[in-house]
Amino acid sequence: MCSLPLQDYQRYGRQMILDGFGLSGQVKLKHASVVVVDAGGLGCPALQYLGAAGIGLIGIIDHDRVELSNLQRQILHTTESVGSYKAESAAQALKRNNPDLNIDIMTVALAPENALELLRPYDIILDCTDNIPTRYLLSDAAVVLEKPLVSGAAQKYEGQLCVYNLGPTGPCYRCIFPTPQPRETVGSCEELGILGAVTGTIGNMQALETIKILLGLHDQKPSLLMYSALGSPPFRSIKLRARKPTCSACSNPDHGLSSISNTDYVQFCGGVSPDWVIQGMDAGMTGHRISAKEFDELVESKVPMEIIDVRPPTEYGICQLPGSQNIPLKNIMTQPEKYLSAAPHKDIYLVCRLGNDSQIAAQALRKVDTDRVIKDVVGGLRAWSNQVDPTFPVY
């Protein structure tokens, strides 16, 4: 009969006494291997519970470093972890809870060239990433390696969970989403926001689905679980069909190493994600933009002007420049002439968070009034904080 180290009976006893679990279930977990891609908002809670459950080998793939803005939701990292690799920080946290864990730390970026090599040693793959190209790459790799892919996603107050490529007929990600969403419709947590507890909910459920698969407790029926923190009820399950006979990945016998290595997943998903900080700092459009320092000099000189902050009202409520008024971008784009007539003789200066939306708003206003001075601040309020007032909040 299989046995465990004596201390493991006490450590894992509360789950071992469950019907359908027992000693044999704990032994299965001890001999199982799981890889988590991205030790962020989803990966941290998933890793925490996988480690606590006694998974024998855990791989962590993440080349990013911990930032202060991560700590609101990435619960394995601490203030002391800021600047260190997320994979290393997460591994240290898991070891503090369970020093006997075997952990593979991989501080590299997952790419078509290394995906199969990095993922091959593990029984199950967890997709805890926040970008669409990597989702397609992980799905294709899971198909080639014939491994289940436990995929989670979260944004704002909502999340979703699905297990792909499970069993002989389980669909892959491409079966459900054969073509990616248009690039302009996909936002990040930095742009749209995220409630930390939402990533915790989805990440914990990814760990749960993984444990069910390893124990043989999963019904293997394909479904997509939708979660809304503000919904009632908060969970909704959508039944999925089996894999598509026409799927270019899981139903294509020629799909393999060559197709993955020859695929540009970033271009397939619409190109590189814009770097809004860099774009907002672009001082192009000669004569139509003003630096934060130059803007400060105008403010100090008390030149008559209108300062329009085009951020959403919620963001305006977090922090704002004295004397500014909040007119959200969507309002300006709908009726630009309305906001020009309110102050017909004053120059207009527009600001936003990073200097991108303000450019759009300024262009819309200039199309209506070509004679007035209408400029926006390069780099937005973040540049104001960096160059003018270091006490101004950055979020």
Short description:
The chain is an alpha/beta fold and 395 residues long.
CATH topology of the largest domain: Rossmann fold
How many structural domains does the protein architecture include?
2
CATH class of the largest domain: Alpha Beta
Overall mean pLDDT score? 93
Explain what the structure shows:
This is Needs CLA4 to survive protein 3. Pathway: tRNA modification; 5-methoxycarbonylmethyl-2-thiouridine-tRNA biosynthesis. This protein is α/β, with parallel strands linked by helices and 395 residues long. The chain folds into two domains: 242 residues, NAD(P)-binding Rossmann-like Domain (Rossmann fold, 3-Layer(aba) Sandwich), CATH 3.40.50.720; 111 residues, 3-Layer(aba) Sandwich (Oxidized Rhodanese, domain 1), CATH 3.40.250.10. Helix content is 38%, strand content 16%. The protein contains 19 helices and 13 strands. The strands form two sheets. Strands 3-2-1-4-5-6-7-8 form an eight-stranded mixed sheet, with helices on both faces. A hairpin with a 6-residue loop joins strand 7 and strand 8. Helix 4 packs parallel to helix 5 and helix 4 runs parallel beside helix 10. The chain is elongated. The mean pLDDT is 93.
